[in-house]
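fyi for ur records
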Amino acid sequence: MSKDLIVRLDIPFFPDRDPIIFHKWFPLNRDNEIIVDHGDVSVRLWFDEDCLLHADRDMEQIKKLVNVMAAKMHAQVIIHDVPDEIAKFIYQEKAHL
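which gave:
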């Protein structure tokens, strides 16, 4: 029986080198997430308040900023129909961590 492999991670950005800047807007709504399905692989990319470079600020202050910078982006990759042998190997290796 095949299984789905789900990997969730944060992708950091480096504002001093490669900033991701949103002008007077930040895609906090889940309706703004990017979804790509390609064969047996699904990828979701999204932002939330935790992704803001200024996450320590009040959201009302952030809404007044002209350039809103992202410090990271969330990602989830789902690989569908992973063969049982590979799933078993992953779980065995995970136990050794």
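The mean pLDDT is 86. thats all i got for now
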